[in-house]
Amino acid sequence: MIAASVFDLPSYVQHSYLGLVGEQLKVSLGATAAGLLLSLPVGQACARWRRLYPPVLGLVTVAYSIPSLALFVLLIDYTGLTDTTIFIPLAIYSLCILVPGVVDGVRTVPREVLIAADAMGYGRARRYLQVELPIAAPTIMAAVRAATISSISLMSIGAVIGNLGGLGQLFTVGLKAFNLQLVWLGLFSLVVLALLCDLLLRLGQRLMTPWADRRSAQP
Amino acid sequence: MSLVDYIRQFFADPQFQHGYDGIWQRIAEHCWYSLIAFLCAAAIGLPLALLTGHFGRGDGPIAALAAVGRAMPSLGLIVLLAVKIGVFNFYAVLIPLVALAVPPILLTTHEGLRAVERSVVDAARGMGMRPWQVLLRAEIPSALPLILSGLRTAAVQVVSTMTIAAVIPFGGLGRYVVDGLSEYRYYEVVGGGFLVVVLSVLTLVLFAVLNRLLVSPGLRAGNRG
């Protein structure tokens, strides 16, 4: 007989462990990806028109300072108690972390390289995809890793407003039931998940930019 | 009803105008506990980072600590300590808040000192300054914008995490959010959320003012060559 494992959650959690992990990954990684997609054009615009950057940076700093719980509850009126209510704030926070990263990344591209690409007949789109993005990639990826880690840990706060927040529910349910084991499981899983995603992103970055200086991969 | 209507309803409700659940009372609680946590974190993080930054040691461990700090779910830490050492216990809130606020202070202060140009340090030394004078009169003033930005990140994080402390249950503005949710009074939830947003934006403003007052004009972004 195998003893009941730590991962067999008591029935009052109303989810399986893997279900919670899946939800956690789906929402937090999805939100980070959405933030990345939005931050690329915004960052590019800020790098191109320099005067745009200070106001955007100010806006991003203010938005990032808004507590996640406050954003969650203010959104309940519009999106209800659904994953969207968690997804939107996480995407906003990711955007806030990523925009400075993208701007710094794009600024690391030397002018001469751009001129050389133009001289070789690269069109704007091709120059962007094949020259600018790869050179900016290490800096952008550092920001992507920070955004991913913070999305994963921030999402757990969603559990405060209801049956949301992925693994964060282990905290709220654990508190109600005074079940320390659930709380430990939640903490452990979230930290491992965050560090695992970080590791995978680091590996991905190595594969994508094998020429990059190893030291620039540091956070 | 729009959010504005909810907020208006919240401020009009006599229940929240005075007494233990009054708005000013909750704001005072929130600020007071946040301030204590922030000062503890600064008292731990600043001296440590000033030492590591000055001597140029510990880049790796500090970066790793910052990553772990970012990955650490605050709700989990608060609940863990609440269940372990008892709800209604300030330490169950204080310890996680400090644990979350120390890494950003540590990282940015350390990086700020490391980023001070060598020529500035050399010049200070050449003028005959002792090592602690170099730290106090050359390194810290040059690194001040970054040091302040680390303190700002920590302060904002403390103010927002303080909201979550209401789940264990503890005072502060998070009370409105948690109580409102459990009693289906959505206007109370929105009102609490609104006040928290105001408080964190005010924290940012405070640090912008500090930046203006303390940072040497020569170092401000706009005035650089």
From TrEMBL, chain A:
Its main location: membrane. It is found in: Cell membrane; Membrane. Residues 21-201 form the ABC transmembrane type-1 domain. SUPFAM superfamilies: MetI-like. This is ABC transporter permease subunit. Belongs to the binding-protein-dependent transport system permease family. The keyword Repressor does not apply. The lineage of its organism: Bacteria, Bacillati, Actinomycetota, Actinomycetes, Catenulisporales. Keywords: Membrane, Transmembrane, Transmembrane helix, Transport. It is a multi-pass membrane protein. It comes from the Bacteria. CDD domains: TM_PBP2. The chain crosses the membrane at residues 17-40, 52-74, 86-103, 135-162, 182-201. The keyword Zinc does not apply. GO terms for biological process: glycine betaine transport; transmembrane transport. Coiled coil: none annotated.
Automatic annotation (TrEMBL), chain B:
It is a multi-pass membrane protein. It is found in: Cell membrane; Membrane. The keyword Transport applies. GO terms for cellular component: plasma membrane. Residues 27-208 form the ABC transmembrane type-1 domain. It comes from Actinocrinis puniceicyclus. Belongs to the binding-protein-dependent transport system permease family. The keyword Transmembrane applies. Keywords: Membrane, Transmembrane, Transmembrane helix, Transport. This is ABC transporter permease. GO terms for biological process: glycine betaine transport; transmembrane transport. Pfam families: BPD_transp_1 (PF00528). The chain crosses the membrane at residues 32-50, 62-82, 88-108, 154-177, 189-210.
